[in-house]
Amino acid sequence: MNNKKIKSTNNFDEASIIQGFDIELSEKNAQRIDRLVDDFEKSILNRVDEEYSVNTTFSERVADRIAKFGGSWTFIGYFGAVLLAWTVWNMLPFIKPYHFDEPPFILLNLCLSFLAAFQAPIIMMSQNRQNARDKHESVIDFAINYKAEQEIDDIQKHLHRIEENSLHNQEQFNNELMQIKQLLASIESKLEHKKLDE
Question: What keywords does the record list, in alphabetical order (predicted)?
Fold first, then answer.
């Protein structure tokens, strides 16, 4: 009995408890479960990426790349450098014959308007596609969570059934033990009566 207690405390130190079930789970098994879940999530994401690459047209992929570049610090850096070079080139007095857009920079304003007019819908197209993809992923996440919840409910029901069976078996064992004690008591009383008769 003491050995069992020592073993269980040692296991308890090395193990974690699954919430709600009082089931000991060793670190090795916990790592294995984490690895399986990670592999499952990667396979789902790979499947979503495959669907994305199969179902997208060339123009949609170009829109995604433009939106990705247009929303980066690299674009801001390049664009800032172009604007600075444009304004400095057109303001230096010693190269006045080479100026192509004198202040107030009407051509620059026109270029910026064109850029904004084309870039905004491209970015919105990419965001709409990303929203659709996020929605698809959230549906998959919901399905996984729902399935996991059903499996947890099944496990809980099974554990409750096992607990009820063990309680029922314990009651039967206690009843049988009581009957055996009663039989032993009656046998002892009969033996005592026999001794007294002799």
Answer: Coiled coil, Membrane, Transmembrane, Transmembrane helix
